[in-house]
Amino acid sequence: MTHSPAQACSLRVLALAALAAALALSACGKHEEEKSDALSERPVLVTQPRVAAQSQSRDFAATIRPRVESDLGFRVTGKVVKRFVQTGQKVKAGDSLAALDENDFRLQREQAEAELAAAKMVVAQALGDEKRALALRKNGWTTDATLDRIRATAQEARGRQQRAERALELARNSLDYATLKADGDGVVTQTLVEPGQVVGAGQTAIRLAHSGDLEAAVSLPEDFVPYADKGAATLTLWSDRNKVYHARLRELSPSADVATRTFAARYSILDSDPKLALGMSATLSIAAAGHESVMSVPLSALYNQGGGPSVWKVGADGRLELAPVTLVRLNSDAALVTGPLTPSDQIVMLGVHKLEAGRKVRVLTRETL
């Protein structure tokens, strides 16, 4: 079937018009689809992990304490009649600190002296009887049984004298123990008795800080105990933060405190000076850098729904994927983690609990806000 030139021209015009309409509809649909995808994308604020050294540097509140601190108490029971020292007073070894009423102890000593005197008289009489019995037995005027009985009596008398001597020694010691004396040079840090108070044997009466080396007393959390002696320790006083002292671990408790669950530690101050005083507050810094590198991420980037910590990572296609991580330590403003993270990754730092895996997101950074 043939068409005239006019009809052919009309057909071409219609075909071109239909093609143009189809192209317009296609472009409109593609635009609507792109607009819908753009509306479904969720904007998220992202950041990049930073490589950080697994530093175990920590600061702890410390108190300046003496190397040796004794809790002194009377070795006998009695009533305190006088206290010779006050808190903060310096004393020398052998100085009197407090005294008990000595009347009963003097009576005990006098009783022991009388017992010893009587025992000595009995011994003297028994020895005389034994000497005479030996002479009689030698001449045949007595029997062996009588001699043995006299010898036994003499032996008993000597034992009685020995017991009396020990009793007198104990009585003298008790009288001497009625006065509490310093067992070394130092400073009285606490007085726990007052005149008129009745104290028992062994009850703490005076606390004495011995002169000598000073130490920093701290309480370490259980997660830091393995690093307590792994690095350099420095000490700064709260009253003078410009001066830095060097310290070294001397003692670490093998068990945790039942209340605080911390371990008591003592650090010797290697370069102490007169500025250090008992009871001062200080900060002990322990730096023990680790060799393993970790990633530092914001605290707000951590996501945990009971299956362990993780972070939301934006994939190459712009969709979210959950990356499990291992928590190493929490700092004041960041978390140190290990896991499938690199410094070039983009992780979501806000609103992590409102996201789901596979969601298309629109990346925002602090620079683009």
TrEMBL record:
List, alphabetically, the InterPro entries matched: Beta-barrel_RND_2, MdtA-like_BSH, RND_pump_MFP
Residue stretches in coiled coil: 109-174
Stretch forming the signal peptide: 1-26
Gene3D superfamilies, alphabetized: 2.40.30.170, 2.40.420.20, 2.40.50.100, Helix hairpin bin
This entry carries the following GO cellular component terms, namely: efflux pump complex
Instruction: List residues of the Multidrug resistance protein MdtA-like barrel-sandwich hybrid domain.
Output: 71-205
Q: Which domain of life is it from?
A: Bacteria
What keywords does the record list, in alphabetical order?
Coiled coil, Signal
Domain CusB-like beta-barrel positions? 230-289
The molecular function terms of the Gene Ontology recorded here are: efflux transmembrane transporter activity
PANTHER family registered for this protein in UniProt: MULTIDRUG RESISTANCE PROTEIN MDTA, RESISTANCE-NODULATION-CELL DIVISION (RND) EFFLUX MEMBRANE FUSION PROTEIN-RELATED
Similarity comment: family membership: Belongs to the membrane fusion protein (MFP) (TC 8.A.1) family.
Q: What is this protein called?
A: Multidrug transporter
The organism of origin for this protein = Methylocystis echinoides
